[in-house]
Design a protein that fits this description.
heterotrimer, A alpha/beta, B mainly alpha, C mainly alpha, A: alpha/beta, six-stranded mixed sheet, 10 helices, 10 strands, about 40% helix, globular, C: mainly alpha, ABC transporter involved in vitamin B12 uptake, BtuC, two-stranded antiparallel sheet, 2 strands
Chain lengths: ~260, ~425, ~325
């Protein structure tokens, strides 16, 4: 199986602080992998580099054989990387459906003149987009709130909406940043189940940052552990669970299932 | 008797009215207010002279000529609303677009460039006249396009700046361009803008001989006895077109992109929206309408004069958008009309009435910018959503969700994201 | 490209220097003089921006209002003019200085309390718009009280020459402005560096939450900053008045010049504000005073704005500022 994403010697420095230190990271196609590590280990920084929010100080990122190291976020999304955020970043004044429609931005073509004059092409595209959007919301379990403002949704629904919006970008690689943060055990279980369903029904690869070990161990095919910006271990969940260095750095303190 | 009072209090007598209203099919119901207002506005010249001129506080209603200026300002407010209200970009230099539009009219519809003689669909000027005389309708379009290009050029270096820096820089352009037109009467000997004198006279629009003979449309506004009325109706049409375009854009792919950028720029980028390009489009379209408005008013005033283009106008337009409601078309039109009217004659009227009926003796119009400043501050502190909130918030208010009218959850949510970013 | 421009600028200056050396130096001195006054205003902008990331648009107008108030004191209250005894002038000016500092400080702090404090959690756009609104309000207050005319004071400080080197002259009243600014700057640095309030200011500007946790009263610190900035504006107003005249809208133009100076030096950086102010003062003086191919005073505003735009686009951290990563 080839690698969908290859990050070579990625380094990120902020002034004197080294957030990510010469990290090599690959994601095999159609896999679910997790990235864990104590707070401040550099996980979100790495995510941000993958999505173009930060530029690596040095190193190279190849996605689907294309060099995306210096590309702006919207270009990377267009190439097929979608993401959710650690602190929910929905568009609060837009409805759930509108949030999802924004996710489709790079997959739609409607332009200014077409929108103003209401050409049949644009009208059709919008109709289809609305339909696909509602379908996506239903698929994500929030079909009944599509015309609710995002800021009025419950926390769990907001998390689902973030995911639906990311899926709307039609990603080949989905980056989820602590998707179950703040969820209770039932919500977490439902979410984990949804991820599994997603992966089996769609040609999608998933990279997860997580603190909830149950989720990590339950769903990941491979786990990578970061500490102080360096990779200290990588392997199957079972291997990681028994890795002494990891336990020492992290697992011993975290809540285990 | 108490029963009667109860029913009166609950406005039950209005129920049949509400019933009838609800029975109108939803599609028509949406357009009805617009249609009613449009008809009232179109008929205005006919009934304005029979309106009372002694109304308490406001005294008289604006005459047709003043109304043209009011309509033009509303067009600009709608244009600015695209930049500030939809895309959330604080543009403090909109007057630059106004100026570019006006001078474009000055260049392409007057005798200014006396070195050449070029006529294209011009009406009301002899074919012998020097200068570039293109049909004013066409010039409006040209002015819009040229101003839009200007907007894009201004946007290129500035749109990647952060909010407050963007504001200052647009302020700068809003200052440079008027100063430029004031001084550009001798660029290496070439008179571009005729300096402090401005360019005058400027042609008026018209429909030419052909349409005049066929359908009775006026040959040239300038030569008509009803000049002000004709300008008024044409301005109304321009406003309707502008509002229509913005209405369509708001619910389009581009409109959603603007609002997404306004709500959370980083998330918007992550969702595949090309930030620079999208922001530039907002600028370009806002500039387009500003240019059209500028050109039109130059034709109406038969001149483009540097004294018209003052930095204060940018703030004045901003005040309209804030008063009306950022992002709200109805709000901006109504808020804009109110403020424009205040500016053109309302404040003077109110001042006169106050001086006549109260012990006060102030020249209210002198303090107009203090008043606008106060409106801005009060609105920001107490009702940031504006008089008529944007459609989305309105829905929330109608359905009675927990948030009160004066709450602005927008603040809390954004604050979190903002602070995250400045770390 | 920037290098090319700077080289051309240098060439232009040198040519002017050679052609009219006395003019050049006279203009240079004028530039330094106005630059000192600009520095006082620029510091106000930079202090507030450093702590709140807010461009207090009203700051320039506070400066103008203070100057106008000072003019009333000089002319009507104390009746100072060139015939008053030196001691009387000194005493009068000191008294007015004290008053105008308190006045400026109070106005500025009131603006913060009334308008900006409530919007501390609001999005940037909202506070910025409010600042613009406040600017207009203050300007209008000046207009209402003092009318549309320019106000000035009789030449209180002698206009005799301090020195004459060839045709280069420098007057006492010009020197006074520079001399008066220096102790103010020294006092300011001491306050910022050594006093408890100054340290609180620096802490809050770097990290308000951490400062709050450490026991800093953020509200009071912010008020203190505005007081300080307002006081500086007051001093600036008085000094400016001694040499030029002031009108209700003088604050707008000078405010933008001073803000540009603050940005040029590096917004948030105190020495940067002073450096930037001196540079802008020089640029303005060169533009208006030199004769060989100088654009002239009509173009001053455009040039200053041009500089502002250029800096924000090409080097937003200014000359002395630190590069902050965008979006970090």
């Amino acid at each position: 199986m080839s690698d969908l994403l290859v990050a070579e010697s990625i380094r990120k420095e902020f002034g004197g602080l080294v957030a990510v230190a010469d990290l090599d990271f690959t994601i095999p196609d159609r896999s679910i992998v997790s990235l864990i590590g104590p707070n401040g280990a550099g996980k979100t920084t790495f995510f941000n580099m993958l999505t173009g929010v930060y530029k690596p100080t040095s190193g190279r990122i190849l996605f689907d054989e294309t060099d995306v190291t210096a590309k702006p976020p919207h270009a990377i999304t267009k190439l097929g990387i979608g993401r959710t955020f650690q602190n929910i970043r929905l568009f609060p004044q837009m409805t759930a459906l509108e949030n999802v429609l924004v996710g489709m931005h790079s997959r739609l073509k409607g332009g200014i003149l077409g929108s103003i004059f209401g050409t049949p092409g644009v009208r059709r595209e919008e109709r289809d987009a609305h339909e696909r959007g509602r379908e996506l919301l239903r698929y994500s379990g929030i079909g009944r709130v599509d015309d609710e403002l995002a800021e009025n949704l419950s926390y769990g629904d907001q998390r689902r909406l973030e995911l639906a919006r990311a899926l709307a970008t039609e990603p080949k690689l989905l980056l989820l940043d602590e998707p179950t943060a703040g969820m209770n055990p039932q919500e977490t279980a439902a979410f984990t189940e949804f991820l599994g369903k997603l992966r089996s029904e769609r040609p999608i690869t998933i990279l997860l940052i997580e603190h909830d070990m149950k989720v990590v161990m339950g769903i990941s095919e491979r786990v990578t552990v970061l500490d102080y910006g360096e990779k200290i271990a990588e392997g199957t969940p079972q291997e990681i669970q028994s890795n002494e260095r990891v336990i020492e750095a992290y697992l011993g303190k975290a809540a285990i299932g | 008797m108490p029963l009667m009072r109860e029913r009166l209090r609950r406005l039950e007598f209005l129920d049949p009215l509400f019933e009838a209203w609800r029975r109108i099919p939803a599609r028509i119901r949406g357009w009805l207010p617009v249609a009613i207002v449009a008809v009232l506005a179109a008929a205005y010249p006919y009934y304005v002279s029979s309106l009372p001129t002694d109304v308490p506080v406001i005294l008289a209603f604006p005459d047709v000529g003043a109304s043209v200026t009011i309509l033009v300002f509303v067009v600009m407010a709608v244009g600015l609303n695209v930049v500030v209200g939809y895309a959330g970009l604080l543009d403090l230099g909109y007057v630059a677009f106004y100026a570019i539009g006006a001078y474009t009219a000055g260049w392409f519809a007057s005798g200014h460039f006396e070195q050449v003689r070029f006529h294209l669909g011009s009406v009301g000027v002899s074919r012998e006249a020097q200068g570039i005389h293109i049909s004013v309708w066409l010039v409006l379009l040209i002015a819009g396009v040229i101003t839009a290009v200007g907007g894009i050029l201004i946007g290129l270096p500035t749109l990647r700046l952060r909010g407050d820096y963007l504001a200052i820089v647009t302020l700068g352009f809003g200052e440079i361009i008027p100063q430029f037109v004031r001084n550009a009467d001798s660029l290496k000997g070439f008179d571009l803008t005729h300096g402090t004198f401005g360019i005058s006279p400027i042609d008026s629009p018209g429909f030419g001989e052909g349409l005049h003979d066929a359908v009775g449309l006026p040959t040239s506004f300038a030569q008509s006895f009803e000049r002000a009325r004709l300008f008024y109706w044409a301005a109304l049409v321009i406003l309707l077109i502008t509002v229509f375009c913005c209405f369509r854009l708001r619910d389009s792919r581009l409109g959603r992109a603007w609002i997404a950028i306004r709500e959370d720029e980083t998330a918007a980028g992550a969702m595949g929206i090309p930030l620079m390009r999208t922001k530039t489009w907002a600028y370009a379209i806002g500039a387009f309408f500003g240019g059209v408005a500028g050109a039109y008013v130059a034709s109406f005033n038969s001149g483009a004069f540097p004294s018209q283009f003052h930095f204060n106008i940018s703030i004045f337009l901003l005040c309209m958008v804030i008063l009306g409601g950022m992002g709200s078309l109805w709000g901006v039109v109504i808020g804009g009309a109110i403020l424009a009217w205040l500016n053109v004659e309302g404040l003077a009227n109110i001042g006169a009435w106050l001086n006549a009926h109260t012990p006060l003796n102030v020249e209210v119009a002198k303090y107009q910018f203090g008043i606008y400043g106060t409106i801005i501050v009060l609105m920001m502190l107490f009702r940031p959503v504006g008089l008529i909130p944007e459609r989305r918030r309105k829905r929330e208010l109608e359905e009675g969700t927990p948030h009160g009218v004066l709450d602005d959850p927008l603040y809390d949510h954004r604050a979190e994201n903002e602070r995250e970013e400045t770390r | 490209m920037g290098i090319v421009f700077l080289v051309l600028l240098g060439v232009w200056l040198v040519v002017n220097l050679i052609k009219t050396p006395s003019d050049f130096f006279t203009v240079l001195l004028i530039g330094i003089t106005t630059g000192s006054v600009y520095a006082l205003i620029a510091l106000g902008y930079t202090l507030v921006y450093g702590i709140l990331q807010l461009i207090n648009f009203a700051h320039g107008d506070v400066f103008a209002l203070s100057g106008l108030v000072a003019s009333t004191f000089v002319v009507s209250v104390f009746g100072l003019d060139e015939t008053t005894a030196t001691l009387g002038i000194i005493g009068g000016l000191l008294a007015i200085l004290l008053f105008v500092v308190v006045f400026g400080a109070t106005i500025n702090a009131t603006i913060e309390f009334v308008a900006y404090r409530r919007l501390r959690q609001a999005p940037r756009l909202a506070v910025l718009i409010t600042a613009v609104g406040m600017s207009f309000i203050v300007q209008n207050v000046s207009l209402a009280i003092f009318g549309v005319n320019f106000r000035s004071v009789p030449p209180l400080i002698s206009e005799e020459h301090v020195f004459e080197v060839g045709d280069v002259t420098y007057q006492w009243n010009q020197l006074f402005a520079v001399l008066a600014t220096i102790p103010v700057l020294i006092l300011l640095s001491w306050v910022v560096a050594s006093t408890r309030h100054g340290k609180a200011m620096r802490a809050t500007s770097q990290d308000p939450d951490a400062a709050a946790i450490m026991g800093v009263n953020v509200n009071r610190t912010i008020s203190f900053t505005f007081l300080l900035a307002g006081g500086l504006a007051g001093v600036g107003g008085l000094l400016y008045l001694l040499e030029f005249n002031i009108r209700y809208d003088t604050g707008f133009e000078l405010g933008l010049i001073a803000f540009t100076a603050a940005v040029l030096g590096g917004i948030g950086n105190l020495s940067g504000a002073v450096l930037g102010a001196l540079l802008i003062g020089l640029i303005q003086a060169f533009n208006e005073g030199l004769s060989w191919h100088a654009p002239g005073s009509d173009w001053t505003r455009s040039i200053v704005f041009g500089i502002l735009i250029a800096i924000l686009v090409f080097r937003p951290e200014g000359l002395l500022g630190e590069r902050t990563p965008e979006g970090a």
